[in-house]
Amino acid sequence: MIGNRHMELSGNATSVKGAGTITLKNGKVVPTSNFSSHFRTNSKEFAMQNKILEEMGLINDKTVRIDVTQ
């Protein structure tokens, strides 16, 4: 976890490229979601966010993805 004060992490930005939550279990990401109490990401942005996480090797096709906009 990089933090839970996302407004500070983003430098108090009014928008970000991705937002949401990830849950780690034994060092692995189990579910990921686009739920955020401040930023609102749509399904397309959530898909891009997951693509980046896949490219980084943090998630794979078995990782649960919860799109809260659906």
Query: How do the SSEs run, as a string of H and E?
Result: HEEHE
Please state the CA-atom Rg, rounded to the nearest Å.
12 Å
Shape: globular
- Fraction of residues in helix: 10-25%
Largest sheet: 3 strands, mixed
Number of helices: 2
Task: For the largest sheet, list the strands in their spatial order.
Answer: 1-2-3
The count of DSSP E runs of length 2 or more, i.e. the number of strands, is 3
When the domains are counted, the total is 1
Strand content: 15-25%
Distance from first to last alpha carbon: 25 Å
Average pLDDT level: 79
Task: Provide the low-confidence segments as ranges.
Answer: none
Class by alpha and beta content: alpha+beta
Task: List its salient traits.
globular; single chain; 3-stranded mixed beta sheet; alpha+beta
Question: How does the SSE layout of this entry go?
Answer:
Layout: H1 6-9, E1 21-25, E2 28-33, H2 43-55, E3 64-66
Parallel strand pairs: 2-3
Antiparallel strand pairs: 1-2
Q: What does this entry look like structurally?
A:
It is a single chain. The chain is α+β, with helices and mostly antiparallel strands and 70 residues long. The chain has one domain. Helix content is 24%, strand content 20%. It is built from two helices and three strands. It has a three-stranded mixed β-sheet, with no helix packed on it. Strand 1 (21-25) and strand 2 form a beta hairpin. The chain is globular and about 30 Å long. The N and C termini lie far apart (25 Å).
